[in-house]
Amino acid sequence: MYFLKPNLTFQTYSSTKNFPTDWDLIASNNIFLSQDYLSILEKSAPINMVCFFIGIFEKEKLVGVSLAQYINLTNVNSLGDRDHCFKTMLKNFIFKRLISNVLIIGNNMLTGQNCYQFSSQIKVTDGILALNEAAKELKIQLRKQNHKIHLTVFKDFLKTKANLFETPNFKSYYRFNTQPNMVFPIKDSWHTIDDYISDLTKKYRDQYKRARKKADAITKRKLPLSEIEKYHKQINQLYLNVAQNAPFNTFYLAENHFEEFKSTLKDNFLFYGYFIDEELIGFNTLIKNHEDIDTYFLGYDEKHQRNKMLYLNMLYDMIGYSINKKYKRIIFARTALEIKSSVGAKPIEMIGLIKHENYFLNQLMAKSFAYFEPKIAWQERNPFQ
Length: 385
Hints:
Blueprint: E1 2-3, E2 8-13, H1 23-26, H2 35-44, E3 49-58, E4 61-72, H3 86-98, E5 101-105, E6 116-118, H4 124-144, E7 151-158, E8 174-177, E9 181-185, H5 193-199, H6 202-214, E10 219-222, H7 225-230, H8 232-243, H9 257-265, E11 269-276, E12 279-289, E13 292-300, H10 302-308, H11 310-324, E14 329-333, H12 337-342, E15 346-348, E16 350-356, H13 359-363, H14 365-372
Helix pairs in contact: 2-9, 6-11
């Protein structure tokens, strides 16, 4: 137990089995801080990731919960497989030697504010300061294990929460903006997918019809745990087809990741397979998070993706499901910004904070961050005008 201001302490945990009994009571508004979800990370986190869990206490009463992740980028081709030019190889060389050991306060596997949940008994600013102290302690623990942290990151906060970090404790951090979180708000007037389609302009109704026609030969079904296990090899290959072509990677999922998800979260985790003649050609996953549906990882065969407009059809399927089930929002996350925009998702700007442990390198953070952050040019669409 580590002491902060009077009556406020924090405790770090390496296993969910040691959680206080009221952990889920504090985390009740966000499945991504629940004991069930965090136990999945404990059992099937990426091979280069170690998860830590943080409890904040006031007079021995749990008042806040959070997640931290140590990521070792040494053995990950973080800048993707698509570009093998000298500039990319140079970036990878620098990346792995100067910024490969990263401590993230938050969840690097998700998009959005999934860093913490605090009870009303403490101020959010006090909770944030406690997390900063917890980060310092975790860096000491990791150093004892011969893991010297290069970068500390506080990940994914709404711009409206930027004032939480306007304290001397965060003066040395560089505040950055990454790609926006694409969020799809569901109108109260939509009761079926037909209501959504009728609100589209002609151009985007035609896009919907064209995509659906392309997918005539595809059958889609929700897979239970037994089928996720059955198609284990195909699922991992389809996932890697997408992940290895991403412009930036910090991890690859463990091979048992989806099985652990389904086994633990059960009906709160949905896995949809897309088939042609019983051949699995793609999949997507969804997580129920109270009034939100969060899209998770997906995979597809690139040939069928191009010929069948598979990714776009997946987006329409997610929209149809979420409307039918009366959800309020779909969290589409980052990547593929323009196509998500074309179905109605809106960009929500997020901020993060980052600091290099070397003082002189930290002074260059603004320039170096711009050098490594992939540049994504895209045009926002509005399919309802």
